[in-house]
Structures are given as C-alpha cells and as structure tokens.
Specification:
By secondary structure, the protein is of the alpha/beta class. The protein folds into 2 domains: about 50 residues, no CATH class; about 140 residues, Ribonuclease H-like superfamily/Ribonuclease H (Nucleotidyltransferase, domain 5, 2-Layer Sandwich), CATH 3.30.420.10. About 35% of the residues lie in helices and about 25% in strands. The longest helix is centred in the first third of the chain and has 14 residues.
C-alpha cells in the first residue's frame, strides 16, 4: 500500500512492479520465489485498510518516528482543505434515438423518429459537486492539519466536496494530541462562534481569520490580525502543492471515499 501510494501506481502497475522490480520485492519482504499478489488482491486489501482505518495508524506511526528526531508540533497547527477531482466522469447527457412504430420502413423518411433524453449516473456516487470561483468541481475535499513549523501532515480526513470546511476543524484538532495553549490557524472558512468556543474549551489559542461583518468596515486591528495569520498559512498550501504535484492529489486515483 505504501509503495503504491508513493509511486502513484494503479493496482495493475503495482502487480507488474512486484513481478519485475527487485527494489519493490525487497521493501515488501518478498522474494523471486514468492507468488506476488495480483491486482484484485491489492484492491481488496486497500479497501480493508480503509475500513479498519489502518492508514491513520500508519500516519501516526510515521509522525511518531519523526518526533524522535525533534520534528513535532511545537508552535501550532494549520488547518485547511483542498479539492480533489473525482476519478470518474460526472453525470453526462446522452441522446438515444428510437425506431419508428410499425414493421415497414417509410420511404423518404429517416430510420429514426425522435431523440430520447437519458442521464447516465456517475460511477463515483460518493463524489459531490462544488463551485469554487468560476470552476465547478465534482469530487472530494481533503481536510488536513499540518504543523506550523514544517508543514508536515499530522491528520487528514476526506469528505465529499460539498461538506463545509468549518465543520471539520474540531474533528481534526481532536484527533491530535495537542498540548494546551497551542495555536490553531485557519482561514475565514472556519470562522464561527462554535469553533471559537470549542477551541477555548480545550484551552487552545484561536488563530482563525476573522470575517468582515455585513455592511461594516473591517477594523484596522482585525485587518492586521488577518494579515499576520496569512503570512504563516503558506505552509499548508505548500503541503497541498507537494501532494498534488508528487502524489496525484489533483485527481483521485480510485473510486469512492
């Protein structure tokens, strides 16, 4: 599962690499005498890993090993979400023509009578539509918490694209062992009284950017507060850039959550 993710491989490509690539065999503790798992086996086990939340345990273990080298959450976390397009095409409209009623063809008339409109459902039923700016995206959101210093992913959750960012702040924060007085940074999409109260209840420092109140000018101190936070939030965008450039996060490789 790890090498498949790191090298952006499909199930068929992973099976092929396990047959021919001795580096993959060594890492997976297989040998040339061992039968390698076929693509359907790899697919089934990936599903089991997801159901048993094994990937979360792997992420925790990797971060635990990094913490031994003094790479850990010390100053704060940054929470944000990025859109991931579905692997399947969204719904599309097709025209299917029907033959005329009767046994004999009518001379001089077209073989077909009229078009009938049908809709083909997407093969990825868990994906949802979201319009961001002028672009509509059919897919998912990767809600992510990274450490403020290094931008390393600490926690992640994937939802359909139409899930509101603000609802995912506390589930991400609560999945981490964050000491009191740690700062939690987030953009205006997470600005709500519920999130402010939840952070205060856990004795965490809110670094959520403020929204401008309707029909009111934003105070200068609020502008300065938002600007200060925006100069620190680039690390999460850098993490998303790395995920999309090197690990194909721009578009999902598989179907479903």
């Amino acid at each position: 599962m790890l090498v498949q993710s790191w090298y952006k491989l499909s199930d068929y490509q992973t099976e092929e690499q396990l047959v021919f690539n001795t580096m993959f065999l060594w890492f997976c503790q297989l040998s040339m005498e061992n039968p390698v798992p076929d693509n359907s086996t790899i697919c089934r086990w990936r599903g089991r890993f997801s159901e048993k939340r094994i990937y979360e345990k792997l992420l925790q273990e990797i971060n635990h090993q990094l913490s031994k080298h003094e790479i850990r959450i010390t100053e704060g976390v940054i929470v944000d979400a990025t859109l991931v397009e579905s692997h399947a095409r969204p719904r599309r409209i097709e025209f299917i023509e029907t033959e005329p009623v009767g046994d004999d063809e009518i001379p001089g008339q077209t073989t077909f009578q009229a078009p009938v409109l049908t809709i083909e459902e997407s093969k990825d039923p868990e994906a949802r539509w979201l319009k961001k700016g002028n672009k509509s995206i059919h897919g998912y959101k990767g809600h992510t918490a990274v450490d403020k210093t290094h931008g390393l992913v600490q926690a992640i959750d994937v939802t359909p694209a139409n899930v509101y960012d603000g609802h995912m702040l506390m589930p991400l924060v609560e999945s981490l062992e964050i000491p009191e007085d740690t700062e939690v940074l987030a953009d205006k999409g997470y600005c709500s009284q519920d999130n402010e109260d939840a952070l205060q209840e856990r004795e965490l420092v809110s670094g959520i950017m403020k929204k401008k109140k309707k029909n009111q000018d934003m105070p200068e101190e609020t502008k300065l507060f938002n600007y200060t936070l925006s100069t620190q939030r680039y690390r999460v965008e850098r993490s998303f850039g790395g995920l999309k450039k090197h690990f194909r996060w721009g578009r999902s490789i598989y179907m479903g959550l």
